UniProtKB/TrEMBL annotation:
<dbReference type="Pfam" id="PF03372">
    <property type="entry name" value="Exo_endo_phos"/>
</dbReference>
<dbReference type="GO" id="GO:0007623">
    <property type="term" value="P:circadian rhythm"/>
</dbReference>
<protein>
    <recommendedName>
        <fullName>Nocturnin</fullName>
    </recommendedName>
</protein>
<dbReference type="InterPro" id="IPR036691">
    <property type="entry name" value="Endo/exonu/phosph_ase_sf"/>
</dbReference>
<feature type="domain" description="Endonuclease/exonuclease/phosphatase">
    <location>
        <begin position="84"/>
        <end position="327"/>
    </location>
</feature>
<dbReference type="InterPro" id="IPR034965">
    <property type="entry name" value="Deadenylase_nocturnin"/>
</dbReference>
<keyword id="KW-0378">Hydrolase</keyword>
<comment type="similarity">
    <text>Belongs to the CCR4/nocturin family.</text>
</comment>
<feature type="compositionally biased region" description="Low complexity">
    <location>
        <begin position="28"/>
        <end position="38"/>
    </location>
</feature>
<feature type="region of interest" description="Disordered">
    <location>
        <begin position="26"/>
        <end position="71"/>
    </location>
</feature>
<dbReference type="InterPro" id="IPR005135">
    <property type="entry name" value="Endo/exonuclease/phosphatase"/>
</dbReference>
<dbReference type="InterPro" id="IPR050410">
    <property type="entry name" value="CCR4/nocturin_mRNA_transcr"/>
</dbReference>
<dbReference type="GO" id="GO:0004535">
    <property type="term" value="F:poly(A)-specific ribonuclease activity"/>
</dbReference>
<dbReference type="GO" id="GO:0006139">
    <property type="term" value="P:nucleobase-containing compound metabolic process"/>
</dbReference>
Length: 344
């Protein structure tokens, strides 16, 4: 299967992440019903590492969680593979370049925003995590997720726009994490992508994993790339709507790829109306740009996390106090087509 996709932290921060991990150990197992919900409204919030992050202002209530709409399945004997795709918004870009005119400035504060990002990741505990616009890998994501059993790889952009922002934290790039108790790493490469024989600023991480439970290989990559046949997952922010050439390239590639989030539509053929929604000085923009592609011949989708409604997102759109990025996270459970559990 193919999936595209170290500094110590202070004591108070480490205690926060320990508190975050505790409720997960008693959370429902991976054999739970596919009717799981987005935890933005229902997940227990961790205690802040420092008081007064927002200057004493009351935090707006977090929206109620949307529900999954796929049919209920029998509880499988072995767990599916949970995949999470998320453009988390580079901190330097959020504060220095993106001009979110309706977003409160303190909602972009990294000391606050990183907790919301980590909370969402730890709420769903993906087996494979694909992130883009990561500019705090070494001081946040690698140490925290590494301590919770994840193996991580980071590939920076060669000409990251973050470097143009004063007091930046280094270049942004892609990060690929997987749970060490689920997979073994067999091969890994960081690639710089090209278009028409010209190098671009885009990168990809390509890894070959081996599932500990089944012994089967799984090839994974963040962002698009030419791939070999076999079980395949391709996750990323492609900056392309469903009607654009990049989308058509994947949907008609000959690799037999399908988009997991089409499962949320009534006919199973349409993408969601948005995965990013923001307001800038030039106006309001709502687009579908993020996808989890999977090979239909080799994989099936068991469940997909619904997206919040317009009312739940709120009039200020993204990012906000409740949603730490200008993109929404995508989460799905997939399974090998010939998994014997499907015969139960």
């Amino acid at each position: 299967m193919l999936v595209f996709a170290a500094y110590s932290m202070g004591g108070s921060t480490s205690r926060l992440y320990s508190a975050l991990a505790l409720p997960l150990r008693s959370a429902p197992g991976r054999g739970r019903s596919p009717a799981w919900s987005r935890g933005r409204g229902g997940a227990r919030r961790p205690r802040r590492a420092a008081e007064g992050v927002r200057g004493g202002a009351a935090e707006p209530p977090r929206p109620a969680p949307p529900r999954l709409r796929l049919p209920r399945r029998r509880c499988p004997l072995s767990p599916p593979i949970r995949v999470m795709q998320w453009n988390i918004l580079a901190q330097a870009l959020g504060e220095g370049k993106d001009d979110f005119v309706e977003c409160p400035l303190d909602a972009l504060n990294w000391a606050e925003r990183k907790y919301l990002i980590l909370e969402e990741i730890l709420t769903y505990r993906p087996d494979i995590l694909c992130l883009q616009e990561v500019d705090h890998y070494f001081d946040t994501f690698q140490p925290v997720l590494g301590s919770l059993g994840y193996h991580g790889t980071f590939c920076p952009k060669p000409w990251s726009p973050c470097l143009d922002v004063e007091r930046n934290n280094g270049p942004d790039g892609c990060a690929l994490f997987f749970r060490r108790d689920r997979f073994l790493l067999q091969d890994s490469a960081c690639l710089r992508l090209s278009a028409q024989a010209l190098e671009t600023n885009q990168v990809a991480i390509v890894q070959t994993l081996r599932c500990r439970a089944t012994g089967r290989p799984l090839r994974a990559a963040v962002t698009h790339l030419k791939a070999r046949s076999g079980p395949l997952l391709v996750c990323g922010d492609f900056n392309a709507e469903p009607g654009e050439d990049v989308y058509r390239l994947f949907s008609t590639s000959g690799l037999g790829l399908d988009s997991a989030y089409k499962r949320l539509s009534a006919d199973g053929r349409s993408e969601p109306p948005y995965t990013t929604w923001k307001i800038r000085p030039s106006g309001e923009s709502r687009h579908t740009l993020d996808y989890i592609w999977y090979s239909r011949r080799d994989l099936r989708v068991d469940s997909v996390l619904d997206l919040p409604s317009e009312e739940q997102i709120g009039p200020g759109r993204l990012p906000s106090y409740s949603y730490p990025s200008d993109h929404l996270s995508l989460v799905c459970d997939v399974r090998f087509q010939d998994d014997p559990d499907r015969l139960q």
